[in-house]
Every structure is written in C-alpha cells, then in structure tokens.
# Entry
Amino acid sequence: MPACDPASGATGMRLAVCDEQWLFASVLATALAQQGHEVVTITDQPLVLLDEAARLGPDICVLDAVTGPPSLIEFSRRLHAVDSRPAVIMLTDSGHEEVWEAYGEGLLDGLVNKACAFPVLLDAMDRVAAGERVAAGWSTPERRSAPAAVLDALTTRELEVLRLVVQGHSTQTMADRLGVSRHTIRTHVQQVLRKLGVHSRGKVARAAAAAGLVDVAALTSVRRPRR
# Structure
C-alpha cells in the first residue's frame, strides 16, 4: 500500500460519486454521508454523472477512471466545463498515461490511489476544496540521476518553466511570474517538450518525474484559486 499521511476531514460538502462498479460507488457514498457530507447523486455511468453534475451542482465529483467512450480526457473536459465547475477527484488504482495526462492538463483537481485508507480521500477533498491540487498515494518515482543529456539541455529558465507547467499554470500566469512575454513562455514550453521527448503539456509531469527532475506530488500540492 502506498505511504499516505491522512488527516481528519471537514464536513458539509455536496458530492457526486461515480464508479463503474456500482457496489463500490454505493459503499463509498454511504461512508462519505456518514462523515456529514451530502451525496447528491450516485451512479455507475459516467455520462449520467455529467448530466447530474450540470443539474445538481455538486461541490466535488469523486470518480474512478473512465473507460469510455468518451475518452477520459474528453470526459474530464466536459465535466470541467459544467457551469457550476465542480472540483474533480479521481479515486482510482489506474496509473495509466491518460490519467496522468488529464491530471497534468489540470482537468483533475485530485488524483487519489484507491489503495489508500479512507481518511486520505477525506484529506484530499478538504485540500481540493481549499484550492489545492492533490496527488495522494502514488509512489514518488525512485530518485535517480536524470540523463546527462536532459540536464545539460535544459536551461535554468526552462527548468523554472517546467516546474510551472507541472503545477498547471497558464501561459499568461507563467509570463507574469517570470516577467517575460507570452511568446517567450510558449518558446520555452516548446523547448521543454522537445527536450523531454513529449508532445503535449499533459505528458510533461510524468516525463519529468521519471527523469528525476521534479517531485510531482510536492509541486502540485499548492494552493490555487478556485474558479
């Protein structure tokens, strides 16, 4: 089981629960309700969750990885676009590339391993509600020296941009933080993608962590303003 550091959870959030295993969804919803949360919908169908989220406006949607169609990325984008903009926590034992891509693109506010104890989910919910992004219960990639070519190729400024990309910041926010133009940031991002050998921002986090360049869990456990 991954090493997790649970904390006690606050109560009173409106939740939507979706898992393609109905029994698990039902048991999880009951456990959450016993903690004082209001579970406004329980379903084993992701498309139903989309409809219910738009209709009921939950604060947080807790769901497992979507097997599609639609794809996980498309589903996350559609859930992200719901008018009430619920926070989205994926509670899953799937660590496949598409899950991390959705997290890296900022489409998921939390990513919690199903192998963790229940209090870890409660803690993640509190932190997400407070505006943080959370990756809990995923083993940090074993620290090893990044390939010399990658370290040598990335400039100090590109490493700064890399960390901001992993945190999910927009091009404008990165430009403001570093005091440069949006065009300069886009150029740096393209160089980072090229040097890491990936083709989208969503894949940067995993590639950088695998190379030992960043600690994804530490970088993404920061407060971000809720929209």
